[in-house]
Fold SDR family oxidoreductase.
Amino acid sequence: MAQTIKERRLAVITGASSGFGTEFARLAAAEGFETLLIARRVDRLQALADELKEKYGVEAHVLGLDLTEPEAPQRVMEAIDAIGLVPEVLVNNAGFGAFGPALDMDPAGLRRMLELNAGALTELSLRVGREMRDMGRGRIMNVASTAAFQACPYLGVYGATKAYVLSFTEALAEELRGTAVAATAFCPGPTRTEFGDAAGLAKENAFDLCDLESAERPADAAARTGWEGMKRGRRVVIDGWTNRLIARFAWALPRGIVSRLAAFILKRLKTES
C-alpha cells in the first residue's frame, strides 16, 4: 500500500517563549506546521518544542537569539536555510515596552526597544517576504497593539514603535496586493501576558484600570483571532469589539483630546516599588 508523504511547512515565530508567541506556536503546530521558535530564553523554547512534538507530532526547531543584536536577522535566515524550507508563515511577535516619563527613561533601553520592536521586525519581514514572494505564497503577521492608534504618554516610545509596525505592515500589504503573499498587523488590547511585568506596570492596576473585555481574555483566545485573520489575509486585525470601537474613536477625535485621555489613564498605572 502506498504511504502518503506529508508536505512539510514551516512557521517562524519570534518571541515564542511566552504570551502570544507561545500561543501562535501552538496554533501553527496544530495545523501541521513545523516551527522555528525564536527567543532569548532557550529553556522555555525547548520546553515548548517538546510540547509541540509530543502533542502534535511535528518538528519544532529552537533558536536562542537576542534579536536586538545586529547580526540576528542573518542568523535567523541561516537557521531557516538549515531547515531547508521557505517559511509559509512569519510571526514577528518579539517586543517589549517600558512604562514611565520618556525623559526619565534609559536611552540604551529605548534604543534596544526600537531595534527589537521595529528594526528586527522590518528586516525579517523583508527578507522572509522576498522568499515567500519567490515561492508564490506566504503570510506575515506583525504584532502591533491598540497602542498604535493614538499617542501613549508614559508608554510613548513603545506606542510609537507599534504605530510604526501598523503603518509599515499596511504599506507592505498594499505592495503585496495581487500576490499570494499577505501581511497582517495584529493589534491586541491589554491582555494577561507577561508584557505588564516586563514594562513595569503594577499588577494590581495594569489591567483592572483599563476595564476592557480584552483585559480578561486569555492570550490563546486573542491569538486565535489574530491567526485566523492572518490566514484570511486581512491587513489589520483588532482583537475584541471594545478595542475596535476605541480605535475608531481614537482616529475620529482630535488628537490632542485623545492624548490627554490616554495620559489620564496611563499615568495612574503605578510602577512596582
Observations:
- The first strand starts at residue 10 and ends at 14.
